[in-house]
Write a structure and sequence with these properties.
Layout lengths: L3 H12 L12 H4 L1 H12 L6 E2 L2 E2 L6 H5 L5 H6 L2 H6 L3 H11 L2 E5 L2 E3 L3 H12 L19 H9 L3 E4 L13
Antiparallel strand pairs: 1-2, 3-4, 3-5
Helix pairs in contact: 1-3, 7-8
Length: about 180
């Protein structure tokens, strides 16, 4: 079973070459207590630590995401093996980015939204291929929700509502 300590040690081994360790009199636990606390909070929230090429994927989630008490689509996306797998396809990733832009998401009557930049960051982090938000930002399909994305988000318990109804066939249909 993976523990906070083993996750922390793996993370520390990964960053050791790029982070100066400084005063040798300070233990790793003291030096990185905030990170250990974040990992603890993440596990209490039910977050599944994910690895890609032996890299801890927790860096993409902030303490705010993990501590949020109301539904958080970003956290749900990171907890979905299906979404992470499908995001490896660049076309699906672009479609997810577009759906996250200019739409409102509801779960248990709670609304969640994000900016275009955050949409790009989320998708880049889900792909874990060294991309950043600019690889998706303004890609031309903002606010478009494909049937596949709509179904996948519905499977996670999220309902999508556009800020403005779309009339085009095959694109998002608002109530």
């Amino acid at each position: 079973m993976t523990t906070i300590e083993t996750l922390f040690e793996e993370w520390l081994n990964e960053i050791r070459p790029v982070v100066p360790l400084g005063d040798e009199g300070i233990s790793n636990r003291e030096r990185y207590s905030d990170i250990i606390d974040t990992l603890s909070i993440a596990f209490e929230a039910g977050f599944k630590a994910r690895y890609k090429n032996d890299k801890l994927r927790l860096q993409a989630l902030t303490v705010r995401d993990i501590k949020m008490t109301k539904p958080n689509l970003k956290l749900d996306l990171f907890n979905s093996d299906t979404i992470i797998r499908k995001c490896q396809d660049p076309f699906y990733a672009r479609d997810l980015y577009g759906a996250l832009c200019n739409n409102r998401f509801f779960k248990n009557d709670e609304e969640w939204t994000c900016s275009w930049r955050m949409s790009g960051e989320i998708v880049a982090d889900l792909r874990n291929k060294g991309e950043d938000y600019l690889d998706f930002y303004c890609s031309g399909n903002e606010s478009v929700v494909t049937e596949e994305i709509e179904k996948d988000l519905l499977d996670l318990g999220w309902i999508i509502k556009s800020y403005e109804p779309r009339l085009e066939s095959g694109i998002y249909r608002n109530e």
